[in-house]
UniProtKB/TrEMBL annotation:
Domain CP-type G residues, every copy: 76-240
GO BP annotation list: mitochondrial translation
The UniProt record lists the keyword Cell membrane: no
Gene Ontology CC annotations of this record: mitochondrion
InterPro entries in the record: G_CP_dom, GTP-bd, GTP-bd_ortho_bundle_sf, GTP-bd_ribosome_bgen, P-loop_NTPase
Swiss-Prot/TrEMBL keywords: GTP-binding, Nucleotide-binding
UniProt name for this protein: CP-type G domain-containing protein
Length: 341
């Protein structure tokens, strides 16, 4: 085939062809170097090849949240508008990590609005931890309710408290000559802390999509509870950046952020070290469950050994097993945070 000027058109070489040529030349060069065993050239080249250090891998920095989901950014703007309509705000947190599952902008968003704090998954912490957290928030003047979204424990108490806190709404409306309306309560919090499950328990039927993973709820939804209470189900709200890496690791351990945001092996190794330091668990409980000694307190080595023993060397699968066991309560009632002194 020729160009308009009459010259033959040359086809560009493909990457596949160039790579094949490069490999062929490289193999020929290596054979030439190793075959010249007696020459100074061959000896020098072999010495350089054998003593050359591998390139230093880039420094690995663990990032708690890799990216900021677009639907959360959109929801944050909508939430600020919906807050103007709310009579009471119900903030849901994970009872295992109550301090790490509150948004840094929460106080600024709520202002002087009435707030109810819900610590969900009460079945995963001990009674002592529950009492300690109840006293801590009572000193701050925050009304707290412990719930179990799966079984519905505490759900009805939450509904009654929301109505009582906003009971003066219709009184003020009557004074202004307005008709009474339903109390509006917004349920907000981090992803996968149990907001939608809590609403479904309040309604006694599945209205809101709920699953044991972050990011199921993608848009706001108003639902009606009886004749006098409207509830707003909102997507999980994450800050754009989590600077506290200790809090970010706890979020990953408790499955309150997406799995793509963290490395399973790193997080599971840190969890092993945390469990070993908890008196109720300790290295003995880890050995009883996995038949592996915690050598020198190194969690990552523990995960690697478990992968070799049970999963054919797959550390990722071993890490997933440890995290799943913790999330299902196989190590007992454990709170990863304590109230500040």
């Amino acid at each position: 085939m020729r160009t308009p000027s009459g010259n033959p058109r040359v086809r560009p070489l493909s990457r596949k062809f160039l790579r094949a040529v490069w490999l062929l030349v490289n193999q020929s060069l290596m054979r030439m170097v190793w075959s010249s065993s007696g020459s100074a050239y061959g000896t020098g080249m072999r010495r350089r090849l054998l003593t050359r250090r591998p390139p230093k891998p880039p420094e690995k920095r663990w990032r708690a949240v890799d990216g900021y989901p677009g639907h959360i950014m959109k929801t944050e703007k909508e939430l600020r508008e919906q807050l103007k309509l709310m009579d009471v705000v119900i903030e849901v947190r994970d009872a295992r990590i109550p301090l790490s599952t509150t948004h840094p902008k929460m106080d600024a968003w709520l202002g002087n609005r009435k707030r109810i704090l819900v610590l969900n998954r009460e079945d995963m912490i001990s009674n002592d931890d529950r009492n300690d957290w109840a006293r801590y928030f009572a000193k701050q003047g925050i009304k707290v309710i412990f719930t179990n979204g799966k079984l519905g424990m505490g759900a009805m108490k939450l509904g009654r408290l929301a109505r009582s806190l906003a009971g003066d709404v219709n009184g003020k409306r009557r004074e202004k000559g307005l008709l009474p309306r339903s109390v509006r309560a917004g349920i907000i919090g981090y992803p996968n802390v149990g907001k939608s499950s809590l609403i479904n328990r309040l309604l006694k039927r599945k209205i809101c999509a709920a699953a044991p993973r972050p990011g199921v709820t993608r848009e706001m939804k108003w639902v009606k509870l009886g004749k006098d209470l409207d509830l707003l189900d909102s997507p999980g709200m994450l800050p754009m950046r989590i600077d506290d890496q200790a809090a970010a690791i706890k979020l990953a351990i408790c499955d309150d952020i997406g799995e793509k945001a963290y490395d399973f092996t790193d997080v599971a190794g840190i969890l092993v070290q945390m469990l070993a330091r908890i008196p109720e668990v300790g290295a003995k409980a880890l050995y009883n469950r996995y038949k592996i000694q915690l050598d020198g307190g190194c969690g990552k080595k523990f995960v690697k050994t478990l992968g070799l023993n049970l999963f054919g060397g797959d550390s990722h699968q071993a890490a997933f097993r440890i995290l799943t066991d913790f999330r299902k309560g196989k190590f007992g009632y454990i709170s990863l945070e304590r109230p500040p002194l």
